[in-house]
Amino acid sequence: MHRDDQRQDKGELRLRARLRALYHGASPTAVRFRYAIILIDIAIIAFFIAAPLMQRHGVTFYLIDYGVATFLALDLAARAVAHGDIKAWLRKPIVWLDLFVLATLLFPAWLFNFGFLRVLRLWTLIHSEFFWRTIGRRYDDTRVEDVTRAASSLITFVFVVTGFVYTSFAGRHEGIGGYVDALYFTVTSLTTTGYGDVTLPGVWGKLLSIAVMLGGVSLFIGLIQSILRPHKVVYQCHACGLRRHDPDAVHCKACGVLLNIPDDGV
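RESULT FIELD:
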């Protein structure tokens, strides 16, 4: 019995080490694995965006839905094992967002009205260390990361609001006849164009319109700022830990320590 326990413990340790190497390692195999996971995630996000238009297909839609749920459950379990400290892993807000997305997939009939929140998977992916450890390893330019994060926040906002408007008003108000109408309303409100051909009824409709305008404009301005922000490079100061510096910086702006930022220029 004791030997069986030892074998089980060794097996768990080997599994954890293997998953840790795949999710956090720098080997070519680990990088290819993470690229594959990210590509599957992007395909899943595309499914989430198209889901309102696919639900009419009935059985096919639910088969895809539960297939995505299976993948997401396995991925979350593997990440938890690779992390090691389950309690610390569960304290991350991004993890709870992913768990909620999983719940909407496992119980689509009960949580139908919250299905639009699945698009938050785009935000959790782009803002995860997993993504930038894989994709961002090619860049030391902070502008690339900042612009990507800002763009993902704006896109997530658009489709979450679109899903909410579609779920709450489609078929109940003559202005919102389908998903495209909800998307059209969201974009015209966000850009403050306001053609007036599609509006939401009542006080709550007006309040939602105001929230869309304020939130959308703020995110759009954030995207513009990230594009126009001065170029920085990522190089951690060994003294104070500051990670962002001017490309030609010789001394750390925070503590004055001499830097040695690699430069490929001639």
